[in-house]
Amino acid sequence: MRYLAIDYGNKRTGLAICDAGETIASPLTVIQGQKELLKKIADIVAAEKVEAVVLGLPLNMDDSQGPQAKLVLKFADQLKAYIDVPIHFQDERLSTFGAEEKLAAADFTRGKKKKRLDAVAAAEILDVFLQQKHPQ
């Protein structure tokens, strides 16, 4: 099954996708801003033949939902009007930290790292989701 992971943000939204075998999560792109965000995601879902979406849910360390988590849930409700595939939620705590660690090893400038960070964070979210789905 092809999953599209979304690391939703007010300024940038990172996207990652996995292969049909659900083994490799790869950063896909970063969408800047909110203008036509839902349509752009719907177009990617159609073009990539995505069968389900994994949306990062930024829970607090005590598992409660803060203001950002509520924004993500509202975004999910809006997204449902644009796509006809299931939406799953995945705890995204520490996904940005993991993404930053991965990018630290890369020989990118600070600007290039910033441009890729949200897509790499989305890949982290998708990777955790897939690991939980297929424990070894």
Itemize the secondary structure elements and their pairings.
Layout: E1 3-7, E2 12-18, E3 25-32, H1 37-47, E4 52-57, H2 67-79, E5 87-91, H3 95-104, H4 110-133
Parallel strand pairs: 1-4, 4-5
Antiparallel strand pairs: 1-2, 2-3
Q: Could you list some keywords that capture this structure?
A:
single chain, 136 residues, alpha/beta
Q: What's the level 1 CATH class?
A: Alpha Beta
Helical proportion, percent range:
40-55%
Could you please say which CATH topology applies here? Nucleotidyltransferase, domain 5
Biggest beta sheet summary: 5 strands, mixed
| Rg of Cα set | 14 Å
- Helical segment tally? 4
Shape: globular
The overall average pLDDT, rounded, is 87
